[in-house]
Amino acid sequence: MAVEKIMGTETEYGIIVPGEPDFDPITNSILLVNNFLPPQSSNILWDYDQESPLNDARGFIIDHEQTPPTQEENTALNKTLTNGARYYVDHAHPEYSTPECSNVIDLVRYEKAGENILEISLTRSNALLPQDKAILVYKNNSDQKGNSYGYHENYLMDREIPFDKISRELIPFLVTRQVFTGAGKVGSENNAPPVDYQISQRADFFETDVGLDTMAKRPIINTRDEPHADRTKYRRLHVIVGDSNMSEYTTLLKAGTTAIMLSMIEDNFIQKELCLDSPVKAMVQVSHDTTCKKKLKLTKGNYFTAVEIQKEYLDLAVKYCQQQEDDKFAPMVLKEWEYVLGKLEKEPMELCQEIDWIIKKNLITNYMSRHSLAWDNPRVAMLDLQYHDIRKARGLYHLLDKRGQVRRVLDDSDIAPAITDPPSDTRAYFRGTCQRKYGKEIFGINWDSISFSLDDNNVKRIMMAEPTRGTQMLVEELIESSPDAKTLIRNLLA
After folding, report:
1. Helix (H/G/I), strand (E/B), else coil: 460
2. pLDDT tens digit at each of 494 positions of the chain
3. Angle ∠(187,17,124) on CA atoms, nearest 5
4. What is the rounded CA–CA span in Å between residue 142 and residue 159?
5. Bridge-partner residues for 450, per DSSP?
6. Enzyme catalytic residues
7. Count of other CB atoms within 10 angstroms of residue 232
8. Which of 78, 102, 245, 476 is in Cβ range 3.0-4.6 Å of 250 for a Cys bridge?
9. Which CATH number is 137's domain given?
10. Alpha helices in 347-484, H assignment, sequence order
């Protein structure tokens, strides 16, 4: 039986300072990250000893020297938050990783809380800059100069499932899900064929089917074997092909359908052969076809559109979920999946309140029509970028939201508590609550451990190998009865 799909996302944000020829993205990203938490909360180290990014799921380790940052660099680059998340600088970008979530609604909630955290940081950072300078932050994936930055999804899976089975059965789904997960982009990059507008921000940048790298020769299936959990039981599937979405509805559909797909793979439920003849080529074909009508060649020689392939998976998912009783959100995901595929098959533009690439295309084409502009006009490129501006007063997505022109999943009041409070039903609760109560006694943190500083320079590491433990139900009373870290550890070991 499939393991519970604990999930999370990692979002690298675009950052610029207009009119600044000597703009340093790393320095400005550090400024952002250090302007969310108060100074007294900033001395917890990120535990790089627990990191293993060069382990490959295919059974080997990449031979490459890795030098962890110094303690001073560590605290400048990394912030662990009381909501269980990590907020840090990665490859010259501010990055926010959600806490572990047990369901797709919480995933949307905590990813949106991350946008709010970035906006708070942005406001505080800009207040420190000269009046003629301001940092701008975008939740997108491309700078239109040939550089792409990531959005990664993570899903807990059973380690006994062969990795080649996951790759084989998941690739067609990931390639074709773009039709409802893309964030939309004006133009093409990375030597892809020219196009006015395309579905995905990331599709032009994938160059191989399977691999470990996330920055060069990007693969559709990433093989990083870093479970952040009990390695004998679990793997963490690291999905790097998705776009950063502004639309809550798009994020819900992206993560919800993928979680169901992975459960079906684990339970050996996918018996249909839908392998693509050339997945990398198909990534671009799907993204460049905003009609969603282009046929993709399968290895058997037959042809399907991306929507038709998705409908095959939907039919399987409906049958599969009828046999499951423990996922209360699956019926909602299936209903919206069916609704979206029906619209995409007949008239994609009818989804102009739900799906990011369509919301944005509708916004841009209406503006172009009013002002008689062509796709290569600089104002069109600016609209594309401004859609992803995280500032609620300036971002075009947020402007549409204020006008009631996008479909929401949550209210702002649902998201606000997630800025500070962790999910109650994963180990993120223990991590976040310990930071709030014992922050000055914590030496280092990783996803699956907390190291407490005790007296006489003694450090005690508490392992958290089970993502479904450390919940409020299991540890709230324990933490409430432990006034300090030493007592907590004594009670844990009792």
Report:
1. strand
2. 899 999 999 999 999 999 888 899 999 999 999 999 765 456 898 988 766 665 656 554 555 556 777 888 888 899 999 999 999 999 899 999 999 999 999 999 999 999 999 999 999 999 999 999 999 999 999 988 888 998 999 999 999 999 999 999 999 999 999 999 999 999 999 999 999 999 999 999 999 999 876 666 789 999 888 999 999 999 999 999 999 999 999 999 999 999 999 999 999 999 888 999 999 999 999 999 999 999 999 999 999 999 999 999 999 999 999 998 778 899 999 999 999 999 999 999 999 999 999 999 999 999 999 999 999 999 999 999 999 999 999 999 999 999 999 999 999 999 999 999 999 999 999 999 999 999 999 999 999 999 999 877 788 999 999 999 999 999 999 999 999 999 999 999 87
3. 125
4. 33
5. 445, 462
6. 90
7. 9
8. 245
9. 3.30.590
10. 356-371, 378-386, 396-402, 412-415, 428-438, 472-480
In a domain, 463, yes or no: no
Pairing mode, if any, of strands 449-453 and 442-446? antiparallel
Residue 155: which residues within 8 A CB-CB, separation 6 or more? 5, 6, 7, 236, 237, 239, 258, 259, 262
Q: Which residues pair with 470 in a beta bridge?
A: none
Whether 136 maps to a domain, the answer reads: yes
Q: Which of 392, 335, 383, 334 is nearest to 359 (CA)?
A: 383
Which structural domain, as residue segments, surrounds residue 33? 7-417
CB-based contact 423:100 (threshold 8 Å):
yes
Q: Is residue 168 one of the residues assigned to a domain?
A: yes
Tell me the β-bridge partners of 296. 304
Supply angle C-alpha 406, 287, 250, rounded to 5.
25
CA 64 to chain centre: 26
Task: Tell me the CA distances in angstroms from 34 to 39, 67, 214, 422, one per residue in order.
Answer: 8, 22, 26, 20
431 inside domain: no
Q: Count structural domains, the chain.
A: 1
CA angle 190, 192, 197 (to 5 degrees): 105
Q: Are 445 and 78 in contact (CB under 8 A)?
A: no
- Identify the CA nearest to 13 among candidates 190, 180, 183, 136: 136
Strand partners, 157: 235
Give bridge partners of residue 93 from the DSSP assignment: 90
Q: What is the C-alpha end-to-end distance of the chain, expressed in Å?
A: 33
Contact 426, 101 (CB under 8 A): yes
Tell me the C-alpha distance between 235 and 232, whole Å: 9
Residues 134, 31: contact at Cβ < 8 Å? no
Cα distance between residue 68 and residue 52, in whole Å: 12
| Contact criterion met (CB below 8 Å) for 308 and 296 | no
